[in-house]
Write a structure and sequence with these properties.
Length: about 140
């Protein structure tokens, strides 16, 4: 069965620093789709973050490229398999140079934390109790 994928393209200021940041979170770089202007960060079998230099990103849009440290256009949310995995990923992000992006969300059956990457893009990591989802 075909599984639809998502490719999130993000403009970055320093491609090497951004690649290091995401590999420190435990993600890999797919060299087949990476070069000196872009890096393909494999988050899962169906999610890829394309880190693109601002110059290259400008080739794909006529719109102004926002500075994500000053403006927000998108919040990227990732699911996690447990509360511990939420903490593990966010703690890795903070240790790698990311910053806290908001308050911890803890509603018992839903738990989440968020961080901003090196360029200010906000990543939310959320766990939801599978029993609560069932019904």
């Amino acid at each position: 069965m075909y599984q639809q994928m998502i490719f999130v393209n993000l403009p970055v200021n320093d491609l090497d620093a951004s690649k290091k940041f995401f590999t420190e979170l435990g993600y890999s770089i797919n060299p087949q789709f990476s070069d000196e202007t872009a890096a393909s960060v494999v988050i899962s079998d169906t999610i890829v973050a394309m880190l693109v230099t601002r110059q290259k990103y400008a080739e794909f849009t006529k719109k102004e490229i926002v500075d994500a440290r000053k403006s927000s256009e998108v919040l990227i949310a990732l699911s996690a398999e447990s509360r511990e995995k939420v903490d593990e990923l966010v703690d890795k992000a903070l240790a790698a140079g990311g910053t806290v992006a908001g308050e911890t969300l803890d509603h018992g059956l839903m738990y989440g934390r968020s961080f901003d990457d090196l360029d200010g893009h906000t990543w939310e990591v959320v766990w939801m109790d599978p029993a609560a989802l069932e019904g």
